[in-house]
Amino acid sequence: MKTGISLLAVGHASSLLLTISYLLCVGFDLLFPEYAMFETWRNLLPGFEWLTWKGFLIGLAESYGYGWYFALVWVPIYNFVAARASKS
Known about the structure:
Radius of gyration: 17 Å
Number of helices: 3
Number of strands: 0
Strand content: under 5%
Protein backbone atom coordinates (compact mmCIF):
# COMPACT_ATOMS: atom_id res chain seq x y z
CA MET A 1 0.00 0.00 0.00
CA LYS A 2 1.35 3.40 -0.99
CA THR A 3 1.46 5.80 1.95
CA GLY A 4 2.92 8.90 0.27
CA ILE A 5 1.17 11.79 -1.42
CA SER A 6 1.93 13.38 -4.76
CA LEU A 7 4.25 16.38 -4.77
CA LEU A 8 2.73 17.59 -8.04
CA ALA A 9 -0.84 17.41 -6.74
CA VAL A 10 -0.05 19.22 -3.48
CA GLY A 11 2.16 21.75 -5.28
CA HIS A 12 -0.49 22.74 -7.79
CA ALA A 13 -3.34 22.62 -5.27
CA SER A 14 -1.48 24.78 -2.74
CA SER A 15 -0.36 27.22 -5.40
CA LEU A 16 -3.86 27.56 -6.82
CA LEU A 17 -5.30 28.06 -3.33
CA LEU A 18 -2.87 30.91 -2.63
CA THR A 19 -3.31 32.41 -6.11
CA ILE A 20 -7.11 32.40 -5.84
CA SER A 21 -6.86 33.86 -2.33
CA TYR A 22 -4.58 36.61 -3.65
CA LEU A 23 -7.02 37.43 -6.46
CA LEU A 24 -9.96 37.53 -4.05
CA CYS A 25 -8.05 39.78 -1.65
CA VAL A 26 -7.03 42.19 -4.42
CA GLY A 27 -10.66 42.30 -5.60
CA PHE A 28 -11.83 42.89 -2.02
CA ASP A 29 -9.32 45.72 -1.62
CA LEU A 30 -10.60 47.36 -4.80
CA LEU A 31 -14.25 47.05 -3.71
CA PHE A 32 -13.70 48.08 -0.09
CA PRO A 33 -10.65 50.38 0.07
CA GLU A 34 -11.36 51.33 3.69
CA TYR A 35 -10.63 47.71 4.68
CA ALA A 36 -7.75 47.24 2.24
CA MET A 37 -4.93 44.82 3.03
CA PHE A 38 -2.48 46.02 0.39
CA GLU A 39 -0.09 47.24 3.09
CA THR A 40 0.14 43.65 4.34
CA TRP A 41 0.73 42.38 0.80
CA ARG A 42 3.69 44.77 0.51
CA ASN A 43 5.28 43.13 3.55
CA LEU A 44 4.55 39.55 2.44
CA LEU A 45 5.31 39.83 -1.27
CA PRO A 46 8.66 41.46 -2.15
CA GLY A 47 8.32 43.75 -5.16
CA PHE A 48 4.55 44.10 -4.80
CA GLU A 49 3.21 47.54 -5.67
CA TRP A 50 -0.43 48.49 -5.23
CA LEU A 51 -2.42 49.29 -8.38
CA THR A 52 0.27 48.63 -10.97
CA TRP A 53 0.26 45.77 -13.48
CA LYS A 54 3.85 44.93 -12.57
CA GLY A 55 3.02 44.75 -8.86
CA PHE A 56 -0.11 42.71 -9.53
CA LEU A 57 1.77 40.17 -11.65
CA ILE A 58 4.63 39.95 -9.16
CA GLY A 59 2.13 39.27 -6.38
CA LEU A 60 0.40 36.64 -8.50
CA ALA A 61 3.67 34.86 -9.32
CA GLU A 62 4.89 35.00 -5.72
CA SER A 63 1.59 33.64 -4.42
CA TYR A 64 1.92 30.69 -6.79
CA GLY A 65 5.57 30.25 -5.78
CA TYR A 66 4.75 30.23 -2.07
CA GLY A 67 2.36 27.34 -2.71
CA TRP A 68 5.19 25.36 -4.28
CA TYR A 69 7.51 26.27 -1.42
CA PHE A 70 4.97 24.84 1.01
CA ALA A 71 4.63 21.66 -1.04
CA LEU A 72 8.38 21.17 -1.46
CA VAL A 73 8.86 21.38 2.31
CA TRP A 74 5.70 19.65 3.55
CA VAL A 75 5.27 16.70 1.16
CA PRO A 76 8.68 15.07 1.79
CA ILE A 77 8.22 15.48 5.54
CA TYR A 78 4.73 13.95 5.35
CA ASN A 79 5.88 11.08 3.13
CA PHE A 80 8.81 10.33 5.48
CA VAL A 81 6.58 10.31 8.57
CA ALA A 82 3.86 8.27 6.84
CA ALA A 83 6.41 5.68 5.65
CA ARG A 84 7.84 5.35 9.16
CA ALA A 85 4.36 5.04 10.67
CA SER A 86 3.35 2.30 8.23
CA LYS A 87 6.38 0.21 9.22
CA SER A 88 5.36 0.09 12.87
